[in-house]
Every structure is written in C-alpha cells, then in structure tokens.
Specification:
The structure holds two protein chains of two kinds.
Chain A lengths: L1 H7 L2 H8 L13 H25 L1 H4 L18 H13 L9 H18 L11
Helix pairs in contact in A: 3-6, 5-6
Chain B lengths: L1 H20 L24 E10 L2 E8 L10 E8 L2 E6 L1 E3 L2 E6 L6 E6 L5 E6 L11 E8 L4 E7 L12 E9 L5 E5 L3 E5 L8 E10 L15 E4 L6 H40 L6 H8 L26 H12 L4 H4 L36 H8 L12 H10 L54 H7 L1
Antiparallel strand pairs in B: 1-2, 2-6, 3-4, 3-7, 5-6, 7-8, 9-10, 10-13, 11-12, 11-14, 14-15
Classes of the chains: A mainly alpha, B alpha+beta.
Chain lengths: 130, 466
C-alpha cells in the first residue's frame, strides 16, 4: 500500500499541469452594470448601423433555406453573456463570406469585436479579425 | 519501485513550479502591475487627448510631450493592446511636435508605450474614453428679442450628427464687453439667453463658445474656443415708445368694445327706430284721410236728398248772363264809380256797385238763371236799413254792397209783389223799372245764412242751418 501511494501521488500535479487552460469564460460575468453602460454609450450606435445595413440588404441575407445556422444567433435565457459571446463569435465567421456585402461584413466584425471586448471574452478555436 | 518514483516526484515538482510561474495572466513583470514596463519607473511626461468619431469609423489620439526628451535620442510612441498575453502596438505618427494615430476600437484598455533607441520601453495605461477632447463649436448666431429684452445666442457643434458624443456634451459660453472681463455661462443645450438688463445699452459685446464631455461616461477636456462673434446691444427704450404701445393697445381695445356696443344697439333699435327712419313707411291714404277729415257731429244730419234741402234757397246761377247784367247795371253810374278805390273796380264779374247813387234812378237788375226766391224780396226789404256808403265798402260790407247794390228805402208801399214772374223756363222776366219800387236784382250766388244780408249759399251753411 505505501508503494501504491508513493507511485500515484506525483500524478496529481501532472494532471493539474497537463489539464487544459481554463475555458474562455467571460471575465465580465458578474459585471452587468459595466456591460450595460458600455452598451448604452458605444455598442448601441454600431448595432443600429448594422441593423440599417442589414435592412437595406434584407433579401440577400435571408435566402438560406437550410436554416443550418438558426441556432447561431439564439439567445438562451439566464445565459445572456454566453449567448452574446456565441453570437459574436459566430458572426465573425461570416467575415470571409464574399456573398455578403463588404460594408455589412466590416460592420458585423466591428460589432462582434466590440461585444467580445465589452464582455472580455474570447472565441474558442477562432481568431478575431480586425 | 523506488527508482521510478523518484524521477516522477522531481518531474511533478518541476511542473508545479512552471505552473505557478507561468500563470493565466501571462508573464508577470517585476513591478507586478501587468504592464510591459521594465524595472525602471516611467519618466516621460506626455499629454494625450482623443477625438472620437472624427472620421467615421475612426477615432484619433494625439499626444504631446510636456517635457521634451533630449534631442539626441529618438523615441517612438505606440498605442498597444494586450491580447492573449501579447501586445499589439500601433506606432503613432509624428506631426511636428505631436504624435497622431487613428484607430477604431475605443472599448479596449490601451497602453501608451514609448520606445527608445535602446529598445527600452515605457508604457502607461490609457483609457481612450476618459481623455476625450470634443471639436470646437461653430456658427454662433445672436438674436435680440425686443419684447423680452433678451439676447438669444445659438451655436452648432460638429458632434450633433455623430455617434458617441451627441447629447453628452456641456457647452460654455463666454461673453464680455469690448476689452472687458470675460463672463461665462454653461449649458447642455445649443442656445443661451442673455438678459438685456444685465448688459449695457448701446454697447459692443463679444461672444465665444467651447464644449466638454459631461462626465457621465465620457470624460475629457475643453475643446478649443469657437470663432468669436460680436454684437451691439440695443439702445435704451424710451418711455414714449412703451407708452405709445400701451396707448395703442388701449385704443384698439376701446375701439373693439365700441364696435360691439354699436352692433348691439343697431340690433336692438333696428325695428323700432332705425328702419322707420331709413325706410319710412308709406302713409296709408285711408288713415291719413281719417285724420284730416273732421267727423261731423253726431247731431248732424247729413243727407244728399234734395228734398231735405227744401228750406234752403237754391239759386242757379248763369255765370255769363250775370256778367252781362252787371255790366248794364254799372254803365249809368260810371262817375261815382271812379270815386271808388281802385281795388274795387277790378275783380270779378260782380263789380262793386257804387254806393252813392241816385236812389231814384237806380235800377237794379237782378238776373238769375233760376228761380226767384220768394224770400229774396223780403230780405231785400229788410235790408232797407242798411246804408251803403262809399267809405264802408270794405270787405265786410262788400257783401252788402254786392248783395243789396243800393240802400233800400222802406217806402212802406214797396211792393215786393212785383217780383218778376217766372218764365216757364224758370228765368225771371225782366220788368221795367219802377221808380217807386225798388227791385233789386241780386245776383245771389250764395246764401251764407238765413239772414237777408247774405245771399250766397255755401256748403258750410248746411251745417249751420242744421
């Protein structure tokens, strides 16, 4: 028995070291007031411009009948921050879609990056394009 | 067994040491604040300000050294962003004595780093939204409002149509009299009112405006002053001007009230007074005649039955024949006629019979076209007392002269029965004149009264007879 414990004891630190880095949880998880203030003074203007651009190209953006991305921009209750993070990261995937207008893609990327910046989040497995 | 556990123990301890040293927060610096600064403290004095949304979607950062670095050294200012333990820096462009940079991300926490030639880097944290310097206002407009005696100052700001600072600025208005002391007023709106009573009359003033973030989210410094605008205050209002305006107001009110009163009076008195005066009613002939005509007394017995006038002596008069007889009568007595007043020589067919005539030679011719009244001679005789004198041929005796022609003498035996007999035609036959008899041929044109003196008959006699 003493030999068993002596042999397994060092494994625990290895697990700690080799365990993956903490997941990209947003640092502003419990700071909703600060998030709200930054949204009201900065983000809301860019989101309004993005909405105006998408309204001008309404038919072009919604011709995908497969609805495969319907869950991309879905907002879960009580998981607003995670939902916002997911939406921002998913929106960044459209940056390279040439079928979407350049102005829309740039504005969408700008909003996504601003959202992630406010939430202090990162996208797992994605690079933020500037 | 013991040989295998010893290397694993060493390895685990080494791993734990690495984990603590390379934490999630990245590389720890000696100063412990997380910046990339070296052990030496930052010793550069620099003043920076940001201008948001200066050219959509870019914002700008401008920095100036408050203490110039030595000329022999070259420095590079960079705006850095920490991302995944990596610093991403953007070098600022040098423009004369300032460093300038345009960027889009105003949400991230930034660091301003200065790089020297020796690769020494000194950084300072920077919050872009806390060093905002707005753009200067423009288009100052001053309007004088005479009624309120106020000066309305309006201005515009470039941030009115932009994203971030619209409605989040506070403006400062500075004004002064020429070469005087500046006075300031702050307002969150785009206009300000200056009271005229606080300014000197007929004086020249200067106004300028600047802006600053209101401090709720965006913080920063005052913008540059706008271009100054000058204006001249109004002259002192004379009391007469205000008095005349008050008088005009009072007069207009009185005139309006007078018009209302006049309209009311016209409406009230239209039917009774105004309309009859403007459009008088045409008189009713029947009513008018009723007013003019006197109603006879109740005891009057008016009748047009000829039989009821049996007692009345009606003499038909032949106008032409009467005239001829009268001329024959007047010819023998021309001389006395000339002594009469002139007025009696003219006139109607019935000329004045001269009063002074020879009674004995006087022949009276009475010509009637009608019936010789039976009472006529009696009346003629009763007038024998009358003396017609030349002097009494007045209007009152004219009838007597006309009626009698000659004073009658009561010869006692006058025989009035010598009335001329009636012709079958009703015309009396002329009788030869008789010296003893006096026959008067009276042209009785009218009988005014039962009295023998009046031989004329008028309509009014009917009323009197009755």
């Amino acid at each position: 028995n003493s030999a068993f414990f002596r042999s397994t004891l060092p494994v625990l630190p290895l697990l700690l070291v080799l365990s993956p880095v903490n997941s990209s949880s947003c640092a502003m998880e419990n700071k909703t007031t600060e998030i709200h203030v930054k949204y009201e003074n900065i983000l809301i203007h860019d989101i309004s411009e993005l909405v105006n651009i998408s309204a001008q190209n309404r038919d072009r953006c919604c011709k995908n009948k497969k609805h495969e991305n319907i869950k991309v921009f879905f907002c879960n209750d009580t998981q607003e921050i995670e939902s916002l993070q997911s939406m921002a990261c998913n929106m960044l995937r459209f940056f390279h879609k040439q079928r979407i207008s350049k102005a829309f893609r740039w504005k969408a990327a700008f909003v996504s990056c601003g959202t992630l910046q406010v939430l202090k989040c990162k996208c797992e497995g994605h690079r933020k394009e500037r | 067994m013991l040989r295998m556990t010893q290397p694993s123990t060493v390895l685990s301890i080494f791993a734990m040491f690495l984990h603590t040293t390379f934490g999630e927060s990245g590389c720890a610096s000696a100063d412990g604040d997380g910046t990339l600064g070296d052990d030496e403290p930052d010793n550069f004095d620099i003043d920076c300000f940001s201008q948001l949304d200066i050219k959509d979607p870019f914002s700008s950062l401008t920095c100036n050294f408050t203490e110039l670095p030595p000329h022999n050294t070259t420095y590079t200012l960079s705006l850095c962003t920490k991302d995944d333990n990596k610093y991403t820096c953007d070098n600022m462009k040098k423009q004369e004595d300032a460093y300038f940079l345009q960027f889009t991300d105003i949400l991230s926490n930034r660091d301003l780093c200065m790089f020297s030639e020796t690769k020494r880097r000194v950084c300072r944290s920077l919050v872009v939204t806390h060093i905002v310097k707005p753009e200067a206002p423009f288009a100052i407009n001053i309007t004088y409002q005479r009624e309120a005696n106020e000066y309305l100052i309006r201005y515009r700001t470039p941030h009115s149509g932009k994203k971030y600072l619209e409605g989040k600025l506070i403006h400062q208005i500075a004004y002064r009299q020429k070469e005087g002391t500046w006075k300031t007023i702050e307002s969150p709106h785009h206009h300000v009112r200056l009271l005229g009573q606080n300014l000197e009359k007929n004086a020249s003033y200067e106004v300028k405006v600047r802006s600053q973030p209101n401090g709720k989210f965006f913080k920063g410094t005052w913008s540059e002053w706008s271009t100054s605008k000058s204006f001249r205050t109004a002259r002192e209002q004379h009391s007469t001007e205000s008095y005349s305006s008050v008088v005009m107001i009072i007069l207009s009110i009185l005139g309006f009230m007078l018009c209302i009163v006049m309209i009311a009076l016209i409406i009230i008195f239209w039917e009774n007074r105004i309309k009859p005066a403007v459009w008088p009613n045409l008189p009713d002939h029947k009513k008018t005649l009723e007013k003019l005509c006197k109603k006879p007394k109740n005891n009057f017995d008016i009748s047009f039955n000829p039989e009821s006038f049996g007692y009345v002596h009606i003499h038909k008069v032949d106008g032409i024949r009467a005239k001829a007889e009268l001329e024959n009568f007047l010819q023998p007595s021309i001389a006395p006629e000339t002594s009469l007043p002139e007025k009696f020589r003219k006139g109607s067919d019935l000329k004045m019979i001269p009063a002074m005539t020879d009674k004995s030679n006087l022949n009276l011719s009475v010509t009637y076209g009608g019936i010789w009244p039976a009472e006529a001679p009696h009346r003629l005789l009763s007038t024998s007392q009358l003396a017609v004198t030349e002097e009494n041929c007045s209007s009152s005796t004219y009838e007597v002269c006309h009626g009698n022609r000659v004073p009658l003498h009561n010869s006692g035996g006058s025989n009035l029965s010598s009335a001329p007999p009636l012709d079958p035609s009703g015309q009396p036959r002329p009788e030869p004149p008789n010296d003893d008899t006096v026959s008067q041929m009276l042209p009785n044109y009218e009988m005014r009264s039962p009295n023998n003196e009046e031989a004329y008959v008028t309509m009014s006699n009917f009323y009197k007879i009755q």
